Amino acid sequence: VQLVESGGGSAQPGGSLRLSCTASGFTFSSYSVTWFRQAPGKERTLVAKIFSGGRTFYADSVKGRFTISRDNGKNTVYLQMNGLKPEDTAVYYCTPNGVNWGQGTQVTVSS
Predict the structure, then answer these.
(1) Which stretches does DSSP call E strand in 1-111?
(2) CB 101 within 8 A of CB 3
(3) Are 67 and 88 contacting, i.e. CB atoms less than 8 angstroms apart?
(4) pLDDT tens digits for range 46-93
């Protein structure tokens, strides 16, 4: 199982970024995929999840601002982040099972 996150970077408050999580080594379309984030000195927390059938779930802190989607043909899950806030600053990770993780992608929101 391999997961590669990309798309992170710096943004100003109110700005947008789109993260990608590209997977290989398992039947991608059969699995849910979850985005987590971890800020310095804090625990890793769930951000958003997309089930194999397309149903989605969001943490309250990002509801209405972030959108998770998937393209099974590309084995990729996306996280569109709009209305970014400084508290969104963290390393973002994706996982299909809580065991296999990518290397993460840094998101920094500051003015």
Answers:
(1) 2-6, 9-11, 17-24, 33-38, 45-50, 56-58, 66-71, 76-81, 90-95, 105-109
(2) yes
(3) no
(4) 999 999 999 999 999 999 999 999 999 999 999 999 999 999 999 999
